[in-house]
């Protein structure tokens, strides 16, 4: 099938050609004609399938008629994270290169005033995270009665992050006559209920369920001791041995480990960056940008980065930990082997990971090959039992302050009591920038004097996140009296 049979406008077809796309993907050929016919869409597809273009291309065609009015956006796209929102904005700018459309991005961690100015000018396409959108609405700066097309993207991710009440509220603020395009990688019952409430006779388009891992990703397991330094050494071995390694994402389960692994790789002189929910927005964007450009070759990340981010041409994925949620495995390794390219994914496995590994292999319906010897989980369990009997702690027992919940800020820690780990991480992401610790890379470096590499990396304590300007000035020489 060719793009020019789908009903897209000339301007959009020219942009598609400029992007170098030869043929529409399955979700694109399924959704685009239906969107152009003004039908609601229920798209069951994950990122990497060409999902973003399946709604942006027909929206651009539809937006060619009509014009924007101040504070009344014509279309609204809801995304669960700031990165995804920024990525959709990039897509709109790329595919909309032949259009003169006003696009506004409303995400947290950025000042309200710039966003207000854009809204005042009139917005054709508003891309937002739910919290920031409602903030603008409550401040009276935004009217939603003009929205003709509503896109709810990554709905299952929104559910994980506790955004569903916000989504329900937003849907009620938008005219009932709107067209709704709804995308989710999975369809848990809560999402099913939402689609029944907010979609009218939708066209259902389903591509590759989440349990199917990309055919072109070679997957391997590597046995390792559960001590953290042993795991880091095993990771370095894998990095050294990996063939055709162009760039890679190293996934960790905990934010704390993201920092530790990042520092360790940096000490070993790898070209490395880090990405997790406690970093401020600017640093995260900068990291991602440098990774996309290739200035950074390795990116150590938490699962915040696992879903949705479109980083083309990642040649390898390394799981420093076996993810405790089997679907996260599918999403993590989905960062490689995209758009028909080949990819490789390695997972470090310890004797304590059997339960999680089993869940993954059940989900993907296949056994992953071991690189070297497989772990004898039976023996590992016996050893743990014997250690417990002897009153020794588990080999990788962590102190109580080394887990995700205590990694979070106090306010989100309170909220987190009944929530899974992933939710805590994402909630931290939505905290105001002021509450986020200054990322290590943003800390002011002393101009003179010697300090060790480790010392350079330590964040400031005592003065909190704010360092008064006078403390950063060079001392003035005393005047001679
Ligand atoms: P997405 O699922 O929207 O995150 O898209 C995944 C990647 O596929 C992005 O890098 C897109 O630029 C690319 N892509 C989208 N549509 C096509 C297409 N029809 N042909 C080739 N690549 C595409």
Give a quick precis of the structure.
This protein folds into 2 domains: 3-206, P-loop containing nucleotide triphosphate hydrolases (Rossmann fold), CATH 3.40.50.300; 217-389, Rossmann fold (3-Layer(aba) Sandwich), CATH 3.40.50. It is built from 20 helices and 14 strands.
Task: Explain what you see.
The structure is a single chain. The strands form two sheets. The chain has a seven-stranded parallel sheet, with helices on both faces. Strand 10, helix 12 and strand 11 form a beta-alpha-beta unit. Mean pLDDT is 80; it is low at 397-468. It has two domains: 3-206, P-loop containing nucleotide triphosphate hydrolases (Rossmann fold, 3-Layer(aba) Sandwich); 217-389, 3-Layer(aba) Sandwich (Rossmann fold), CATH 3.40.50. It has 20 helices and 14 strands. By secondary structure, it is of the alpha/beta class. The structure holds adenosine monophosphate.
């Amino acid at each position: 099938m060719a793009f020019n049979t789908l009903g897209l406008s000339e301007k959009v077809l020219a942009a598609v050609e400029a992007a170098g796309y030869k043929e529409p993907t399955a979700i694109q050929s399924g959704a685009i004609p239906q969107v152009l016919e003004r039908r609601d869409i229920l798209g069951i597809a994950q990122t990497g399938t060409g999902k973003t273009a399946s709604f942006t291309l027909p929206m651009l065609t539809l937006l060619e008629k009509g014009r924007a009015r101040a504070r009344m956006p014509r279309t609204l796209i809801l995304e669960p994270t700031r990165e995804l929102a920024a990525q959709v904005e990039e897509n709109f700018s790329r595919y909309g290169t032949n259009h003169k459309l006003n696009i506004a991005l409303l995400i947290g961690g950025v000042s309200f005033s710039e966003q207000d100015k854009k809204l005042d000018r009139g917005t054709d396409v508003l891309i937002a995270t739910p919290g920031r959108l409602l903030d603008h609405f409550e401040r009276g700066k935004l009217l939603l009665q003009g929205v003709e097309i509503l896109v709810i993207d990554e709905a299952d991710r929104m559910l994980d992050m506790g955004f569903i009440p916000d989504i329900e509220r937003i849907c009620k603020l938008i005219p009932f006559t709107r067209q709704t395009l709804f995308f989710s990688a999975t369809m848990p019952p809560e999402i099913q209920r939402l689609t029944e409430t907010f979609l009218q006779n939708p066209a259902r388009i389903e591509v590759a369920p989440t349990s199917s891992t990309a055919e072109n990703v070679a997957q391997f397991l590597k046995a390792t001791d559960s001590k953290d330094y042993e795991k880091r050494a095993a990771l370095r071995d894998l990095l050294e041995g990996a063939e055709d390694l162009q760039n890679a994402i190293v996934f960790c389960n905990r934010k704390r480990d993201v920092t530790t692994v990042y520092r360790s790789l940096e000490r070993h002189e790898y070209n490395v960056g880090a990405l997790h929910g406690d970093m401020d927005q600017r640093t995260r964007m900068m990291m991602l940008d440098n990774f996309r450009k290739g200035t950074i070759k390795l990116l150590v990340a938490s699962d915040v980065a696992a879903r949705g981010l479109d980083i083309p041409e990642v040649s390898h994925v390394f799981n420093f930990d076996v993810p405790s949620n089997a679907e996260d495995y599918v999403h993590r390794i989905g960062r490689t082997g995209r758009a028909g390219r080949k990819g490789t994914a390695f997972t470090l496995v310890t004797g304590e990971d059997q339960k999680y590994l089993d869940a993954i292999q059940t989900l993907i319906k296949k056994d992953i090959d071991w690189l070297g010897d497989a772990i004898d989980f039976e023996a590992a369990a016996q050893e743990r039992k014997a250690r417990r009997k002897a009153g020794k702690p588990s080999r990788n027992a962590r102190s109580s302050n080394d887990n995700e919940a205590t990694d979070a800020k106090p306010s989100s820690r309170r909220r987190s009591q009944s929530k899974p780990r992933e939710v805590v991480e994402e909630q931290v992401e939505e905290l105001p920038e002021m509450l986020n610790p200054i990322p290590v890379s943003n800390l002011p470096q002393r101009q003179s004097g010697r300090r060790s590499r480790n010392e350079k990396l330590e964040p400031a304590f005592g003065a909190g996140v704010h360092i008064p300007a006078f403390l950063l000035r060079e001392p003035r020489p005393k005047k001679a009296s």
